[in-house]
Amino acid sequence: MEEESPAPSVAQSAQPTFLNGDAFPPLVYGSAIRERPKQANIRAAFRKGYRGLDTASSRGLHDEQQDGQALKDLLASRSNSLQLNIKREDIWIQTKFSIALDQSDPWPYDPGDPIALQILKSIQRSLINLGVDVIDVYFLSSQLSTFEETLSAWEVMETLVQRGIVRYLGICHVNADLLRRLLGRVTTKPAFVQNEFVLDDGCDSHVRSICKAQGIAYQVFGLFWKHNSGLLSLAPVQQLARSFDFTAQVALLVLILASAADEGLRLSILDGTMDEHHMEMNLQCPKAFHSVQNPLIDQFRLISGF
């Protein structure tokens, strides 16, 4: 009988870090789904203080080539005029292998290629697009048609870690059953899970529980999408907003980070705001959540289910 959740190795259970040794960022700038030029958004975000970027090879939601150009500009000598002095080891870069159903032209691979070749071509394109020789986190964007196909894809991704091209692996859009099965079969377990935040499904509590037990970082996106708007009016969110003179959005970010820290969950939030003032406000959250009192955290957790 398969073991559902093998004990993590010491190396895999250690908290993920930047190349410079700093802990992975609680806020990562997300570049998906936007109409305005992304390069300007990314440069503005890093100028304000973000140090992580989430992108993907999929052309449906992302433009990895354009995102990469923004990174190249930031790392180039001309960025010194912004007085950023950013080095590669100071930036957290995560991208994804996207299956054919999520792709559009220009393809990073031939859809008729075997899955192993698709992944190898895709990571090579990502390295070129982003102008780097190592990716911090490489995500499998979604499961394949069968579990065995998903497992085969993961095994190819494991070789990228062994070769030093990728530092950590992650999986997106995963449910608890698939995550348990994957943990029972893989050699290199996922260091990250990236799922949509949905209030109505219990905030993904079963997946979060597995992540906490296994030392997997849980990364969420879509926090401020319409279906989660009810979170902003919750009493603890409004109370924190009044106490700290925060907007409801910032108060929600703070409470989610505080709740995760209180229960020992490694949490990261994708933040794709294009408003520079909102960027500044959101970046206050990682510093502010340590000041939140436990009764407020408990109240938020009870009401929200997070």
From TrEMBL:
Molecular-function GO terms, alphabetical: oxidoreductase activity, acting on the CH-OH group of donors, NAD or NADP as acceptor
InterPro entries hit by this protein: AKR, NAD(P)_OxRdtase_dom_sf, NADP_OxRdtase_dom
Keyword Magnesium attributed: no
Pfam family for this entry, one: Aldo_ket_red
Region named Disordered: 1-22
NADP-dependent oxidoreductase domain location: 37-219
Keyword Cytoplasm in annotation: no
Entry keyword set: NADP, Oxidoreductase
Family affiliation: Belongs to the aldo/keto reductase family.
Protein name: Aldo/keto reductase
Organism from which the protein derives: Lentithecium fluviatile CBS 122367
